[in-house]
Amino acid sequence: MTTAPGSPWPSPPVVEPRSDGTGPRAARGAGRSRVVGVDVARGLAVLGMFAAHMWPRVDLDERLFDGRSAILFATLAGVSLGLMSGGAAPTPRGRRARVVGSIAIRAGVLIALGLLLQAWNGYVLVILPYYGVMFLLLLVVLFAPPGVLLVIAAVVAVGAPALATLVPQDAYGDSSLPGAAGVATDALLVGAYPALVWLPFLLVGLVAARSDLRRRGTQLVMLGAGTVAAFVGYTVRYLPGAAAVPAFDPADHEGMPAEIVGSGGVAIAVVGLLLLLTSPDRAWGRGVATALRPLSATGAQPLTVYSAHLLLTAPLFFAYRTEGGSYGLPLWQLAVAVVATLTYAVLWQRFVGRGPLERAVGRLSSPWSRGPRAVTD
Questions:
Q1: Which of 57, 95, 100, 353 is the most exposed place for a label (fewest CB within 10 A)?
Q2: Are 233 and 260 in contact (CB under 8 A)?
Q3: Tell me, what DSSP letter sits at residue 56?
Q4: Exposed, middle or buried by CB within 10 Å (0-12, 13-18, 19+), for 94?
Q5: Is the dihedral of CA 26, 113, 59, 341 positive or negative?
Q6: 193 with 130: CB under 8 angstroms?
Q7: Average pLDDT over the chain, rounded to whole?
C-alpha cells in the first residue's frame, strides 16, 4: 500500500479490472480499485434512508431526504452494475455469461434477504426485494449502447407510470389483483419501490458508468445535465394548468414522470459533483476524499449497514410506538445511529476490509471464481 501525500490513510493500490469483471487479488478487502465519489454518494444515500425512516414527525410530510435518498441508491445500482460489467470497456461477448450469472445470483440473494428483513421490521418499507427485481430487469439491456439505454430510459419514464395507473389498487396503494398478477404488479408498477417505474434511474446510472466516471468531462456532464433535469422536474408543476396533470407531480414516491426526471436529476448531479470533488488527479481532490472517508467507508458496505439498520431499529420502532410515538424515532437515536455507523465503517474498512455481507454476497454470486473481484461493488 501507498500513502497519499499529507494523508494518514493508506491508499488502496490501483488494480486494473479485467474486462470480464474479475481481477487479481491485490490486497485484503479494501485493496481494490474503487471510485471514491461513488462510495461517498452511496454513503449519503444510505444515511439519507436512515433519516427517512427515523426522523421524528407527527405526520408523513415530505422532507428533503424522502424518496430522493432511495432514488440516489437506485441510480448508484446502475452505476455499480455498469462497473461490474466492465465500465467504459464492457465485458467482451465471450465472457458476458459469467457477469450476467453473477448479477442474477446477486438479485436472488437481495430478494431473499430483503423479504426476511421485511418480515422482521414491518415499520420500514424495505427496498432490497425491489432492488433485486431491478437488477434482473437491467440484465436485459446491460450491454446495450448508451444511446439506446437513454432512449429506453425516456420511454420507460413516461410509459411505466401510465401503466401503473391502470392497475387496480387497494386503500394502501397495493395491487388488488389476485395471486401472481398481484405480486407482479406490486413488484413492477405500484409497490413501494416499483422496479419498472424506477428502472430509468438504473439505466441512467449504467450510462454514466459506460461513459468513464473518472473522466472530468463525464463528471461535468453529469453535474450539468442532472441539475437541468432536477430544475425541469421540480418546476414543471408551476406551469399554467400543470397542477391538474398527475404526470407533473414531483412528490416523493408518486412515481410520476416529473418525480423521475427531478429526483433522477438530483441523483446524477450529486454523483457528478462528488466525483469532481474527490478526483484523485488533484491534491485537493485527494484531501476531500480523505475528509469524506467516513462516508466512503459507509458507502463501500451499504448492504451490511442497511441490513444492520433494519435489524436494530425494529425493536426501537416497536418501543416508540408502544409509548405513543407517531412516525420516526427520537432525534437523538438517529444521531447515535449515524455516528455509530460512520465510526464502525471506518474502523472495519481500516482493519478488516470489505463489509461482511458484501464479502458473503460476492462469494455466493461468483461460485466459479476463487478470488474477489477488483472492481467496485
A1: 57
A2: yes
A3: -
A4: exposed
A5: negative
A6: yes
A7: 87
The one-letter code for the residue type at 198 is: W
CA atoms within 13 A on the CB side of 15: 25
Q: How many CB atoms lie within 10 A of CB 369?
A: 15
Q: Is residue 310 part of a domain?
A: no
What burial class does residue 324 get, using C-beta atoms within 10 Å of its C-beta: 0-12 exposed, 13-18 middle, 19+ buried?
exposed
Whether 224 shows a pLDDT value over 80: the answer reads yes
- Does the structure show a pLDDT above 60 at 22? no
Position 9, amino acid: W
Q: Is the pLDDT of residue 83 over 80?
A: yes
pLDDT tens figures, 183-212: 999 999 999 899 999 999 999 999 999 999
- Domain-located, residue 325: no
DSSP string, 288-321: HHHHTHHHHHHHTSHHHHHHHHHHHHHHHHHHHH
Residues 6+ apart with CB under 8 A from 5: 283, 286
Q: Which stretches within 34-140 are classed as H helix? A: 36-54, 68-84, 96-120, 128-139
Give the Cβ contact number of residue 322 at 10 Å: 8
Which has more pLDDT, 342 or 170? Answer: 342
Query: Would you state the cell numbers that stand for residue 200, as one nine-digit string?
Result: 430509468
Which residues touch 48 (CB under 8 Å, ≥6 apart)? 65, 68, 69, 70, 72
**335: pLDDT strictly greater than 70:** yes
Separation CA 175–CA 183 (nearest Å)? 8
**Structural domains counted in the chain:** 1
Q: Do the domain assignments include residue 363?
A: no
Q: Is residue 321 part of a domain?
A: no
> For 275-334, what is each residue's pLDDT tens digit?
999 999 889 999 999 999 999 999 999 999 999 999 999 999 999 988 887 788 999 999
Residue 49 domain boundaries: 35-54+67-291
- Report CA torsion sign: 205, 207, 210, 212: negative
